[in-house]
Design goal:
There is one protein chain. By secondary structure, the chain is an alpha/beta fold. Helix content is 34%, strand content 22%. The protein has two domains: 2-51 and 371-420, Urease, subunit C, domain 1, CATH 2.30.40; 53-365, Metal-dependent hydrolases (TIM Barrel), CATH 3.20.20. It has a seven-stranded mixed β-sheet with strand order 3-2-1-4-13-14-15, with no helix packed on it. The protein has a four-stranded parallel β-sheet with strand order 5-6-7-8, sandwiched between helices. The structure holds zinc ion (ZN). Zinc ion binds at residues 57, 59, 117, 232, 268, 320. Zinc ion (ZN) is lined by residues 57, 59, 117, 232, 268, 320.
């Protein structure tokens, strides 16, 4: 059955919004897009319709820390101890309940898909559950229950630090013991969810801290599979100095050396990069996922997003620790952090930032590109222009005013595969 909507305004690409856009949807896919339509029977969508926004980097359980870590001071590593206390407590049931709430919050904020970077695999002490993928199943069930698409990026975490540091007691929950055992467990997930349209599985070597170069080379053997690869890269200066001391390379150089750079890979954070790193990411087509609200919350630093864009690196966004869950704050945060780092405004255009929040994310997760175009999934995020805050943001038909003004509270409707879920 074909359903037809008439969007008041919609972003079809470029810096301006189109008006009176007819959207015909069948089987969860967009079949027709026609601007300046006067279709009499179509159901009207008020406000501005965007392609579904995509959250390419999430750790669902970090939501528990929201607003609770601001008195202790310190740096990322102090915060990590608090995060590990939360990680020590979760069970499959409590994690399923927590993640269902988090994914509902994401949908209400406009996100139609999530990349869940999942490393909390085993029981306390590291003993696997009866089904070693029980925690992963709990996350996929939570996403399905909430109605959001998910790529479960299953993380490998095998050592405590670059020098071969032992795993801490909490980190034992993250570890499969060997790269072979980890990849074997992931292949079980791939088989189980094959053919599910809203579920994908990805591979996520946690970082160059958590895996040896030999392990990373094993992961690189999967590069021609359908899996997407995500990895935390250079979020912290200590990772860079430890890696350089051990290998004589930056983390990006090490990934290149191990065969992990390329279009299938997304480097998460990419905060502290050299010019050579930026060039290597660009030449290899490796993506970068920025998580601006988490990066500022954790005092990570300001990533070189303008230089990466100039090098041709595809960008995406993620809410990571869920300090806030707001796609507009993440998207404009890429450019606003770049302003603080460079002293220049407007290196990234509104349309580039919106592309990072939509098709950039779906590409990073291996879903069909989120855009308002024939053949694309009918995933839409609708922004109300009826509040005092947003009442004039679409008046001139410019995307930038919406992008720099709207918040998660302005999302009035969300569609996934043609069905309204918010
Ligand atoms: Zn992360």
């Amino acid at each position: 059955m074909t359903v037809q909507w008439l969007a008041d305004k919609a972003w079809l690409g470029g810096e301006n919004l189109a008006e009176n856009v007819l959207l015909s949807v069948e089987g969860g896919v967009i079949r027709q897009v026609e601007a300046n339509s006067a279709h009499p029977a179509a159901k009207r969508i008020n406000g501005v319709t965007l392609p579904g926004v995509v959250n390419a980097h999430s750790h669902a359980f970090h939501r528990r820390l929201r607003g609770r870590t601001h008195q202790q001071g310190g740096d990322f590593w102090v915060w990590r101890e608090m995060m590990y206390e939360t990680a020590a407590e979760l069970t499959p049931d409590s994690y399923r309940a927590l993640a269902t709430d988090v994914y509902r919050e994401m949908l209400e904020a406009g996100f139609t898909a999530v990349g869940e970077f999942h490393y909390l695999h085993h029981q306390p002490g590291g003993v696997p559950y009866d089904d070693p993928n029980e925690m992963g199943h709990a996350l996929i069930e939570a996403a399905t229950e909430a109605g959001i698409r998910i790529n479960l990026l299953d993380a490998g975490y095998l050592r405590g630090g670059v020098g071969g540091t032992e795993l801490s007691p909490v980190q034992l929950r993250f570890s499969d013991g060997s790269v072979e055992a980890w990849l074997e467990r992931v292949s079980g997930l791939v088989d189980r969810y094959e053919g599910e349209p809203s579920v994908r599985i990805g591979i996520a070597p946690h970082s160059v801290r958590a895996l040896t170069p030999e392990d990373l080379r094993k992961v690189a053997e999967l590069r021609d599979s359908s899996l997407r690869c995500h990895i935390h890269v250079s979020e912290q200066l200590a990772e860079n100095s430890d890696t350089f001391e051990a290998t004589g390379m930056t983390p990006v150089q090490l990934l290149g050396d191990c065969g992990l750079l390329g279009e299938w890979t997304t480097a998460v954070h990419a905060t502290h990069l050299t010019e050579e790193d930026i060039a290597a990411l660009g030449e290899s087509g490796t993506g970068v996922c920025y998580c601006a609200t988490t990066e500022r919350e954790l005092a990570d630093g300001l990533g070189p997003s303008g230089a990466l864009r100039n090098a041709g690196v595809p960008l995406s966004i993620g809410t990571d620790s869920h300090a806030v869950i707001d796609p507009f704050e993440e998207a404009r945060g890429i450019e606003l952090h770049n302003r603080l780092a460079t002293g220049r405004r407007g290196e990234l255009s509104a349309s580039e930032l919106m592309a990072a929040a939509t098709s950039g994310g779906s590409n990073a997760l291996g879903f069909s590109p989120n855009e308002i175009a024939v053949g694309a999934p009918a995933d839409f995020t609708v922004v109300s222009t009826g509040s005092r805050r947003t009442q004039d943001v679409a008046a001139e038909g410019r995307l930038q005013q919406l992008l720099y003004t709207a918040t998660n509270a302005d999302v009035s409707a969300v569609f996934v595969a043609g069905k309204q879920v918010v």
